[in-house]
Amino acid sequence: MTKNITINYDAFSEGQVASKIWLCEQLESISITPAPKIWILGGWYGIQAFLLLSRGKMKINHIRSFDVDPLCEFIADRINAMWVVDEWKFKAVTQDANKLVYEKDVDVVINTSTEHFESNEWFDNIPEGTLVCLQGNNMNHDGHTSDVASLAEFIAKYPLQRTVIDGEMGFEYPDWNFARYMLIGFK
Fold first, then answer.
1. The architecture CATH gives domain 9-186
2. Distance between CA atoms of residues 176 and 13, nearest Å
3. What is the tens place of the pLDDT at every residue in 74-95?
């Protein structure tokens, strides 16, 4: 089946890919459940899943990628086709992350697009004790509804029981710049 689709190539921009590799490196550096079950909220085209799976630095049971845009499901499943056919090691799902009902054995929840969520409902619904990996930024952009101005503000917005890693990555271009913030820890 083929679809006439238009891809937003920003998904493959330097800032998008560098920040997702940064998350991979940091997540791979900490000791977590062997072969975790990972849910990615606002998964877009499945690039974060692709990087985690293709790097092969951690054993992963499966990844589910949730996005409200049905086109994202189609594209993410194609980008991660190698793992879709491998007993559903990857599967994209069209669903609002604010309405997810969590399985009791989800080990890691990732959201690298917190700036696109109008409320914290998605965060509030994550079960306590779950390892979360969050990224947001201070970029002024039409599609952003939840920007933060600093790492301190980002940490305050998403309170964790125990923080394992937090940090900031700067991106500078000839005519603009922005910072991406990351927080990894237990809710």
1. 3-Layer(aba) Sandwich (3.40)
2. 15
3. 999 999 999 998 888 999 999 9
